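Bug report (template v2)

What were you trying to do?
Predict the complex of my protein with fe (ii) ion.

What happened?
Run completed; filing so the output is reviewed.

Input:
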Amino acid sequence: MFLKNYWYVGAYGHEVGRTLLARTIVSEKIVFYRTEDGTPVAMENRCCHRRAPLSRGQLVGDDVECGYHGLTFDPSGACVRVPGQKKIPERARVRTYPVVERWRFIWIWMGDPALADPSLIPDHLYRYNEDPDWTAVTGYLHLKAHYQLLVDNLMDLSHETYLHMKTIGTVHVAETPLTKVERDDDGVTVTRWMLDRPPPPIYDKSGGFSERGETVDRWQIIRFEPPSHCCLDVGVATAGSGAPEGDRSKGISMRSLNALTPETEGSTHYFWTFPRDYKLDDGDTSDLHAKGFHNTFMEDVVMLEAQQEIIELDRGTPTVDINADGSTIPVRRLIQSLLDAEGAAKDPSRAAAE
Ligand code: FES
Ligand SMILES: [Fe+2]
């Protein structure tokens, strides 16, 4: 079960062009393309004639011609041509989905089109992807695991100490309890401060802290917003320079913006970007980040896919919660309450009975 009345990241803008891109999103088959004037289109990837995938057809101007018997659909999904006959059957059309291009992504609305308000796209989370004061490296991973395993992973960074010791992990992450967990109307925020610690390698290379004999105050502020956005504000500043009180002038920071789009109940599209506010024009830092974070996230992918395999074989054996789950449990509860609410919205008789 997935939340539907939300904007999901369907693709990077650069992936969608004048060829047909097939992608499954929340278990629905979609085909993306652009019209001749560059407008992105998302269409059901299933011909209404005999269910051939339209992505195996071709673009004819702004329309999609099915590769099986030639029915042709315009960008609104209406059938405009049936070979060998003049009359087009009334029900000959395919579903199209609202789309918006913003912050390097093609956003797709998977629910009721009448509710697809572009102002609901979480600009405050993703604007860093195109902010001139920031520069971003980007990536995509396909994960053979349920998206909530990846949400858990990003909300609970205590795993850095064990899974990512070679890159971003230090022993202090798992050993430092969460500073606070806040839930509001729009999501959940989890904060962890680690004060007066040695700088982790990836920050030290850029910030030169240990060269100056400095320790750092390190922060991890993780924001979850539905349906499945996990956006991290992370960084370090010279210890004692006032970062916990809001002065980050002696520090460097990054955003780790993670748009997790469910593909199926057992797989996820993982769109990640890493904007930073330092060394903006430095290609070496960008290369270091692109490779470093890809490798780090691959460590997560391997673990999560192995977890998914066990979950699929499991017969409901109970699991045990620990303090670190203070960051994951509120998010799971929020998702469940929103799923319940969407279920109630679909069936008003059920809402009335409860
Ligand atoms: S299946 Fe598409 S035209 Fe027949
Ligand atoms: Fe990780």
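What did the reviewer find?
Residues 47, 49-50, 52, 66, 68-71 surround FE2/S2 (inorganic) cluster (ligand 1) (CB under 6 Å). The chain is about 25% helix and 30% strand.
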